[in-house]
Design goal:
By secondary structure, this protein is mainly alpha-helical. The protein has 12 helices and 2 strands; from the N terminus they run ααααααββαααααα. The protein folds into 2 domains: 70 residues, lambda repressor-like DNA-binding domains (434 Repressor (Amino-terminal Domain), Orthogonal Bundle), CATH 1.10.260; 114 residues, no CATH class.
Length: 232
C-alpha cells in the first residue's frame, strides 16, 4: 500500500489569477525590451539569479511558480517595479482586475494598493480614514508614512487622485461619458487642488510665525549684552 501511495501522481499546482498575470507580464515586457527567452535567461544569470530559458518559457506559459526572489530579479532585469509584474496594464475605474484573495476589484483601486497609496478593501466611508492610517503605518517607511499622514500629504494625495480621474476621462468618453460627468470631475479636481494649495499656504504661515517668535525671543534674550547686572 505504501508503494502505491508513493507512485501516485502529485496534485497539480494551482495557479491563481496573479500567477497568470505574472506570466503574461513577463512575456509582454520581454517582447517590449526585445529580449529572446535566451537573452532574458542570460541577464537573470548575470544578475545572480539563474533561471534557465526553459524555465522562463514555463513561467510565461504558467507552468512554473515564481518565487519572491524570482519576481524581484525579473522586475530588476526588466526595469520595472514588482507591481508591473503583478497587475495588468490597465487602471481605469471602469475596468476590473482579479486579485488573489480579494476577488475582482476596480483596476485603479488595485494599482493604488500595489503602489502603497491606500488599502485595497475599505469597509465603509466611515472607516476609510482609519483604514488608510493603519495601511500607512504598516506599509510605509517612516518618512513616507509621516508625509502621507500629514494634512498637506493627505490634500496632495486627494488632488492627485482627482487629477488622475480627470485625465482618464478621455478614455471614459469613448464608452459614453457625458459632458456633465466631465464638468463634475473638473470641479472636483479644482477643489482638491485648491485644498492642497491652502494646506501648503497654512504650513508656510505657521512656519513664518514660528520663525518670528523664535527671532523675538532671541532678541529679548540678547538685550543687555548677557553680562548680568552691572556692579559699578
Amino acid at each position: 500500500m505504501a508503494d502505491v501511495e508513493k507512485r501516485r501522481a502529485r496534485p497539480a499546482t494551482q495557479y491563481g489569477p496573479t500567477a497568470k498575470q505574472v506570466g503574461e507580464n513577463v512575456r509582454r515586457l520581454r517582447d517590449r525590451r526585445g529580449y529572446t527567452i535566451y537573452e532574458l535567461s542570460e541577464k537573470l544569470r548575470a544578475a545572480g539569479r539563474p533561471i534557465t530559458p526553459s524555465a522562463v518559457a514555463k513561467i510565461e506559459r504558467r507552468e512554473r511558480q515564481v518565487t519572491a526572489d524570482d519576481l524581484v530579479v525579473l522586475a530588476v532585469v526588466l526595469d520595472v517595479s514588482p507591481a508591473a509584474l503583478l497587475l495588468p496594464l490597465k487602471d481605469s475605474p471602469r475596468e476590473r482586475v482579479d486579485i488573489t484573495g480579494a476577488g475582482v476589484v476596480p483596476a485603479d483601486a488595485a494599482w493604488a494598493w500595489a503602489s502603497n497609496q491606500r488599502p485595497l478593501l475599505t469597509p465603509s466611508s466611515e472607516t476609510a480614514r482609519t483604514a488608510e492610517s493603519e495601511y500607512a503605518l504598516a506599509s510605509l517607511p517612516p518618512t513616507a508614512r509621516e508625509a502621507r499622514l500629514h494634512p498637506v500629504g493627505r490634500a496632495i494625495e486627494a488632488a492627485r487622485d482627482d487629477v488622475t480621474r480627470l485625465a482618464s476621462y478621455a478614455g471614459w468618453s469613448v464608452e459614453g461619458g457625458s459632458d456633465q460627468e466631465f464638468a463634475d470631475l473638473l470641479d472636483q479636481a479644482r477643489t482638491s487642488l485648491d485644498r492642497a494649495r491652502s494646506e501648503v499656504d497654512r504650513i508656510a504661515v505657521e512656519r513664518n510665525e514660528l520663525s518670528m517668535l523664535r527671532d523675538g525671543v532671541g532678541s529679548k534674550t540678547g538685550e543687555g549684552g548677557g553680562d548680568g547686572p552691572s556692579m559699578d
